[in-house]
Design goal:
Elements: H1 3-13, H2 18-30, H3 34-46, H4 54-66, H5 70-81, H6 92-111, H7 115-127, H8 135-146, H9 151-163, H10 171-183, H11 187-199, H12 207-219, H13 223-235, H14 243-255, H15 259-277, H16 281-293, H17 301-313, H18 317-328, H19 338-351, H20 355-367, H21 375-386, H22 391-403, H23 410-430, H24 447-457
Length: about 475
């Protein structure tokens, strides 16, 4: 397929199959189709059909703009330079110039019924960028595009109802529109829907629903959602308090330039340092994680291992896990007896029900690393982790169940194939691109895919549970 054909197909799928559209624009962009590169930048910025990446979005839009793609220039100005994201500095004069240049084309396309142009035109009227400010006109164009179910228009119209811009303020209508846009995969709508549930704007306060939507948007790369999710984990809002998870999401947000994420990490590190001086094992474990990842402090794996060891000696579950990882892939991997020590620590963490440790020990039993090969124990541990919806364990169980010659149950094979088919379909909604519509082979399925739908499949009730324990005999 040549670049132009991929671009045209991508345009046809933007409203109905954004993941396929993003894949086609990517394909066309690789063939140096500049208009496709501009559309790819638009989708990367909004996280439509792909992982949200404002830095790459800015680069794509800048390159398309430099190549003379007027539409890309308008989007670059209105979306990237206006907000000063993606590493691009704010430049109000350039924004106005780029949008003004794109305006005649947007007006022509909008009047012809193009929802994308209608939405961009509405944005210009709402902010008075490249034209006079007219919030009533902005809402008219947003409504026309939203009537065609264009996700960005739904999101922008929801904002208008939320803030009372050009319409009577109506938080409930805003939530309804955010929900429609979120169902279509708009990461900003997912994040804002989480905020509405958290603060009770247009809906009753529901912290668990807030976490649900924050997580969906965060996993697509929305930095604000990542910071919100970190906050929920830090304070135990809608989910069990977990400092490790809080730091993980704050770090993801910080890596994308989120000041909230960066400030939160620094504050947590200060609190942890004080608690470590008092010998608190939880603080030792979490601060060790900070040093190991370079989160809020200079990266220092030796210092991390030292803190993990102190916490492990006080029987802190996560310290067992992270110290074991130091012996496998970290600064202690070359130490004498590292395999035996890693196994000992993984077993301690497994005793506390930590899924990652259960999975790590399962793989060691499957491969004979530091322990004797034992398929029964590998499957048993993998099941324990899978029962906690741990993605890699779910993937391994399915791989083993299909590939093992010991398993000949036709019913079992059919059920696993059905799971794969469901996964392939749900991957479109999760924004995971399946090139050429091909279903990936089981061993290479992304763990994110399993995490996106495994909750809907639990409990996994294989018809012949005993058959899975005979993959390899214990030696």
């Amino acid at each position: 397929m040549d670049g132009h054909a991929a671009y045209e197909q991508g345009l046809a799928m933007m409203l109905t199959k954004p993941a396929n559209a993003a894949a086609l624009f990517e394909l066309a962009a690789r063939a140096n189709h500049m208009a496709a590169l501009g559309q790819l930048g638009r989708m990367l910025y909004h996280g439509l059909g792909c992982h949200r990446d404002s830095m790459r979005a800015a680069a794509c839009l800048q390159r398309a703009t430099d190549a003379g793609v007027i539409d890309a220039g308008g989007v670059l100005g209105s979306r990237i330079i206006y907000l000063g994201v993606g590493g691009v500095a704010k430049d109000p004069e350039r924004v106005a110039a780029l949008c003004s240049a794109a305006l005649p084309m947007w007006i022509s396309q909008a009047e012809a019924g193009c929802p994308i142009a209608q939405t961009d035109l509405g944005w210009c009227f709402l902010h008075g960028t490249g034209c006079h400010k007219d919030v009533d006109a902005a809402v008219v164009w947003y409504k026309r595009a939203a009537a065609q179910n264009y996700v960005n228009a739904l999101f922008n119209l929801a904002y208008c109802y939320s803030e009372g811009e050009g319409v009577t303020r109506d938080p409930r209508e805003a939530v309804a529109l955010y929900h429609t846009a979120a169902e279509l995969g708009h990461s900003g709508a997912e994040r804002n829907l989480g905020t509405c549930h958290l603060l009770g704007k247009g809906v009753e306060v529901d912290e668990s629903q807030a976490v649900y939507w924050f997580r969906i948007a965060a996993e697509k790369g929305d930095d604000s959602a990542q910071a919100y999710l970190g906050y929920c984990y830090e304070h135990g809002i809608g989910i069990d308090q977990d400092s490790f998870e809080a730091l993980l999401w704050y770090q993801k947000a910080s890596d994308q330039g989120s000041n909230w994420g960066t400030r939160s990490i620094r504050f947590i590190v200060i609190q942890l340092s004080i608690a470590v001086e008092n010998g608190e094992s939880a603080a030792q474990a979490v601060l060790g994680y900070c040093y190991n990842m370079g989160a809020g402090v200079p990266q220092d794996q030796q210092r991390a291992a030292e803190l993990f060891r102190k916490a492990s000696n006080q029987n802190h579950p996560m310290a067992h896990l992270h110290l074991a990882k130091c012996y496998t892939v970290g600064c202690l991997a070359e130490a004498d007896g590292s395999d035996a020590e890693a196994v000992r620590l993984f077993r301690l963490a497994t005793g506390h029900g930590i899924a990652e440790a259960q999975h790590a020990l399962a793989i060691r039993h499957a491969l004979g690393v530091g322990v004797k090969i034992c398929g029964q124990e590998a499957v048993r541990l993998c099941r324990l982790a899978a029962d906690q919806t741990y993605g890699p364990s779910l993937a391994h169980l399915r791989y083993w169940s299909i590939r093992s010659h010991h398993i000949c149950s036709v019913e079992l094979r059919e059920r696993v194939q059905l799971i794969l088919l469901i996964g392939a379909r749900l991957s479109e909604r999760a924004g995971i691109i399946l090139y050429n519509g091909a279903e990936p082979s089981l061993p290479h399925l992304a763990s994110e895919l399993w995490m996106s739908f495994c909750a809907a499949l639990r409990p996994i009730d294989f018809p012949d549970r005993a058959s899975l324990t005979s993959i390899t005999p214990c030696s």
